[in-house]
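Entry 14. Two folds queued back to back today. First construct below, sequence then structure tokens.
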Amino acid sequence: MQKKTVSIPVLLIVVVCTIIVTATIVHFVEENQILHTDSVVKVTRSDLDDVQDLYDLITTNYVEKVDKKALIRGALTGMTEALGDRRSKFLSKEEMEKLREDVSSSFEGIGANLQLRNRLPYVEKEPIKNSPADKAGLKMGDVLREVNDTSTAQRSLDEIAQMIRGKKGTEVKLLIDREDEQFTVTIQRDVIANDTVTGTIDPSQPNVGSIQVSHFRETTGLEFRNIIEKLREQGAISFIVDLRQNSGGLFSEAERVASYFLKDGDTIVQFENDKKTIEKHVSAKKVDEGFKIKEPSVFLVDPETASSAELVAAAVKSKDIPVVGITTFGKASVQNVKKIGKSGYIQLTVLRWLTPEGESISRKGVSPTIEANVPEYAKLPPIPANADWRIGDSNEEISNLNRMLQALGHQTEGETYSQQTSNALKVIQTENNLEPTGLVDATTVQRIQEELFKLVKADDTAYKQALEALK
């Protein structure tokens, strides 16, 4: 098994900005990889005269003090918003740092995965082996009452995670409830591997390796290879690769995983601009280091499978490897990020990616070769986050929301955003220590999707169909 190392990606990357249901997943490409800077159109000074005139007028005549930096940021933001493309945007330095963190193979913290129960955070599963949390003796089920003498009650998971994380070598104090015992533990933070691939031998089929890929980050390709080698040692002679709920990640790592299943020379993905296909990436030793998976394999997908995860599904499907599930999300645009000024960045859509056959999956998704026999709510497309819906609004997306809420036990129906819809959202928000607005937002939608997937997994017919496909 190879030693895990981390390097800076030099190929295409795709960054998950928030969560899949926001449809704000973006691909990034290095400028020297595909972009052609000689095609950049330079504007003349007269093109910006109106902008300069407005800036001068505001800064010299506005009745109150003007924040000039905020004005410039507003102009830059407005220029990208005028494109009508929610994936093209102006980013602050802080927003860019968040994007980098999203694809990093590690973070600084204690290595405990938390969830909420009765509105309090608890350790969902055993801490990562040899992590600070593991060494400190935290156990699955431990309830975190306080972090550094600050109560965790009424706080969201994101807030609690930020309270616990910190620089390597610093300490965090936790007040823990464990059954009838309450105690305090001080833990020194460290660098924690942000693993994205897990794998086990299927309990009912000991020759089948079951692999889950949650995201594509800096070391996903190597993690995947190591898991395959481990499962082979344990007797696996076929594999199920689960890409469900995978919202994307580093494009280069997705290409590497896809290449494992293809022959050298097979097309992984193509790219086009507004005129023609301009580049094709193929399976080769420089991509997968000569590592190949020739055993029978099946892939699982769902409507939350997106971006680089869809790239993998499309690539393996092109070589007649079975894909079981529901049609994927349908995200196929490519963004480039460039620095603007001293601390700003522009994220701009510059290309589209195509399947090996040269087809676009944009807004269509990758259709499975075997459609999963799942409940109707599991087939619904993702809910758009931050939708500006109010009571009385009606559309098909609201109908989907009501059907999802109904599946979770709420009394919602029809295609109208009703008081019942708002009340159901408030219940979910309250249970997750979120502000009970009764409105759609990214975090609330994420919680809905997570709960729905738990229902799907409770009787995982798609996985059972994948097992059948291997026979």
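Second construct, same run, same settings:
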Amino acid sequence: MLIKLLPRPIRKYLHMTKRQRKHEAQLNLWVMPTIYIAGTLVLVSIPLLLDLYLDLPTMTTGFFNASASNTGTLVSVLVSGTLLLAAYTLNSILVVLTSFSSEYSPRMLFNFISDRTTQHILGLFYGSFVFMLVSFLFVTNSSRDYFTAVPIACTLVTLAAVIGFAIFVNHTTTWMQMHNIVEAMKTESERIIQSTLIDELEPYRSDEPGYTFEDYTGYTCKASSSGYVQLINFVDMIKQAKEDDVVVRMDAKAGDFVLKGNRLFSYRGPGAQGVQIEKYSKLIQIGHKRSEIQDVDMSMNKLSEIAIKSIGNDDPTSAINTFHQMADLMINIDASTTLHPYLQDEDEQTRVVYNTVTFSTYLHEGFGRIRHYTQKDYLLIVEMIQVFIRMTDSISEKNFPIIWEFAQDTILHISYSAFFRADRIRLLDYLKQLADVTGHKMDYYELERHLQPN
């Protein structure tokens, strides 16, 4: 009952799962500064207790003592100075980041805000301002003639804020370099893959379907509202399916947009008639925005978006660097996950069937979008084929046909007249290497005839 009286944003956080709450907190600026401000209120009490209650000025020499008027003047100047420093810094950085985001990706601003270094330094700015403000209030309302700990503490805190300012400027200029942005995005994507595909799903995966109760009548559950599938609690779903003795087949995956009335999942088994749909519906979170918590597709989308924007900004170097990071991410996915759809309980009985994206999906989500935006800059296609050759040294052979078919389809949709002679020879050389590695030597000659019709 009391929860309904709280503001809507707070109620939203209370209804989230722990995993969602942690993810959303990282995307907001108020969490870390709140922690710093709370710590500051504790920290500022130390010099105030030393001066106002333990009478520290009487125990020190005159060199360390400052009169009340001088202390008040010092603290008032530091209050306005720290506030001005924080405001000027944030204003300048936001202007630059907004312009930078419009050129490359609107997600950059959110990535910068969610960066831990950014949040810690902003917390330091807010904390230092609160430290000065509280000190100023106590000093101006005190009847003491001298202070020792307060002016020293305020000076040290201001020095910390100045150092934080220098670190923040250096951090921002370093972070805004395109290769660092792409590297940070790839690292975040690897963390999502580790937590979702490996830590959460891999222990339950099986390559054999086992008995999936196909001879029982199936029932369906439809979405009660429209939105993006943000989170699926697979562990609890497996436990609930075991308790009900059913097999759940997911029709929607994390990141999918579902309309009200669309199928979310179906279930069948000996206990299907007694299933309480609400127990399973609570395990599937649907919201108004797409979330990265379990959405591995979005990892490739973010990187491909950077490459596309780089192409539009005539920045092929950044686009090529993005190709390399995308290839590294795909190798990571191929090496660390099996992508089998069957999730089993401890008795090796299939309980959930979840069709995750395949290697082909990742390839088309990433490079498939990019090739549509290369326009006449077909040198990037040459670089893309070169990246595929490097990938074949690290990925499993079962994915070789997927890479070759993608490369073949790409080349067949390019006019031979788009290349200069030297570039055409270079591309054919790379295609021959790729054909040899992937076992498609005969298919290479079709591409050669396409690029050299005469």
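Quick look at the second one. The chain has a mean pLDDT of 84. The longest strand covers residues 227-232.
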